[in-house]
C-alpha cells in the first residue's frame, strides 16, 4: 500500500513585490495530503496553487514551517537528496512539456534512460506496455506536433508514470482540451490511479467536473487554505468566500443541496 502522504506544517511563503511591499501567498498553512488518495486544489488565479506544487517539489523553498513527504522534512533538502526526492514524484504540467524533437517513444523512454540502468530491450517492453495502457500504441514514432491535445496529455502522463511515482502532481492538466476530452482525461486519471496507487494532487479549474475524482478538496484564498474531506462538504461552509466559490463554480448542482438544508 502507498504510504507516501504529504504534510504542510505552518508553511509560510511570501514574495517581495517591486514596490517593496510583501505579498503573502501562504500564511502559516497546515494541511495533510492523504497517501493513495486524490486531493484537488482549487482557487482563483494567482492565489498560490502552482507555488504550492513547487514547494512540494522543492523547486521553491518556504520562508517558514515544514513540508513533510512520507514523514521526512524536505524543506532544507539539496543536491543528491533533492534528486532522489524528485524521483518519487511524477509531474504533469499544463503543456505536457514533451520534447518536440523527440518521438513519443523517446519522450516516454527518457526517464528510464536517464535514471535507470535498464537495457534498451527492457525499456522498449515497458514503454510499449505504457503506451498500450494509455491507448497510444501505433503512435510511438510520431513527434508531439503530430499529436492531438489529448494525445499529448496522455503521452505526458505516460512519461510521468515511468519511474512508478509515489506521488503525481497535476497542474491544470486539461487546459486547452474540449469538454469531452477533459472528461476522458479525468477518467484516465482515475483508472491509472487505481492501477498504480499513487497519491494524487490535482490543481484544476474544472469545477465541478474534477470533483468526481476528489477524495479531499483544498481551497486556497488570500493565503489561507480551507480543507474539505469531500467535495460535498464544501457546500456546508459558512465562510463567505467559500459560499461565493460554491455559487460561482458549482452552480445549480450543489445549490439544490443548500435548499434541502
Ligand atoms: N517566483 C516568483 N516571484 C515572485 N512572485 C511570484 C513567483 N511565483 C509566483 N509568484 C506570485 O505568486 C502568486 C501565486 O502564483 P501561482 O502561480 O501559484 O498562482 P496560481 O494559483 O497557480 O494561479 P493560476 O490559476 O493563474 O495558475 C502570483 O501573484 C504570482 O505572481
Ligand atoms: Mg498556476
Just give the CATH class of the largest domain.
Alpha Beta
As for the CATH topology of the largest domain, it is Rossmann fold
Mean pLDDT level:
89
Kindly provide the radius of gyration, computed on alpha-carbon positions and rounded to a whole number of angstroms: 19 Å
Low-confidence stretches: none
How far the N terminus sits from the C terminus, by CA atoms, comes to 38 Å
Strand content: 15-25%
User: Could you spell the SSE succession in H and E letters?
Assistant: EEEHEEHEHHHEHEEEH
Characterize the biggest β-sheet: 6 strands, mixed
Number of helices: 7
What compounds sit in this structure? adenosine-5'-triphosphate, magnesium ion
Silhouette: globular
| Sheet with the most strands: spatial strand order | 6-7-8-3-9-10
Descriptive overview:
This protein is α/β, with parallel strands linked by helices and 261 residues long. The chain has two domains: 1-88 and 167-182 and 193-231, P-loop containing nucleotide triphosphate hydrolases (Rossmann fold), CATH 3.40.50; 100-164, no CATH class. Helices cover 36% and strands 23% of the residues. α3 packs across α4 and α3 (104-115) packs parallel to α5. The chain is globular, with a radius of gyration of 19 Å. It binds adenosine-5'-triphosphate and magnesium ion.
Amino acid at each position: 500500500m502507498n504510504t507516501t502522504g504529504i504534510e504542510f506544517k505552518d508553511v509560510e511563503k511570501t514574495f517581495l513585490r517591486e514596490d517593496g511591499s510583501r505579498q503573502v501567498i501562504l500564511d502559516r498553512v497546515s494541511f495533510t495530503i492523504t497517501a493513495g488518495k486524490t486531493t484537488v486544489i482549487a482557487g482563483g488565479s494567482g492565489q498560490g496553487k502552482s507555488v504550492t506544487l513547487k514547494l512540494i517539489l522543492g523547486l521553491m523553498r518556504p520562508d517558514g514551517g515544514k513540508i513533510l513527504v512520507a514523514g521526512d522534512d524536505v524543506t532544507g533538502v539539496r543536491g543528491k537528496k533533492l534528486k532522489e526526492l524528485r524521483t518519487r514524484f511524477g509531474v504533469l504540467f499544463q503543456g505536457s512539456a514533451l520534447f518536440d524533437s523527440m518521438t513519443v517513444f523517446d519522450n516516454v523512454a527518457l526517464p528510464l534512460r536517464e535514471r535507470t540502468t535498464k537495457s534498451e530491450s527492457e525499456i522498449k517492453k515497458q514503454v510499449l506496455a505504457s503506451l498500450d495502457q494509455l491507448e497510444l500504441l501505433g503512435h510511438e514514432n510520431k513527434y508531439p506536433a503530430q499529436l492531438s491535445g489529448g494525445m499529448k496529455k496522455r503521452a505526458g502522463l505516460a512519461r510521468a508514470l515511468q519511474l512508478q511515482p509515489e506521488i503525481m502532481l497535476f497542474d491544470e492538466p486539461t487546459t486547452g482540451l474540449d469538454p469531452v476530452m477533459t472528461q476522458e482525461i479525468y477518467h484516465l486519471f482515475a483508472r491509472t490511479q487505481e492501477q498504480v496507487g499513487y497519491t494524487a494532487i490535482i490543481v484544476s479549474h474544472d469545477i465541478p467536473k474534477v470533483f468526481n475524482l476528489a477524495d479531499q478538496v483544498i481551497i486556497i484564498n488570500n493565503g489561507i487554505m480551507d480543507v474539505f474531506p469531500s467535495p460535498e462538504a464544501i457546500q456546508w461552509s459558512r465562510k463567505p468566500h467559500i459560499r461565493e466559490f460554491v455559487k460561482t463554480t458549482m452552480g445549480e448542482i450543489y445549490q439544490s443541496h443548500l435548499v434541502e438544508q
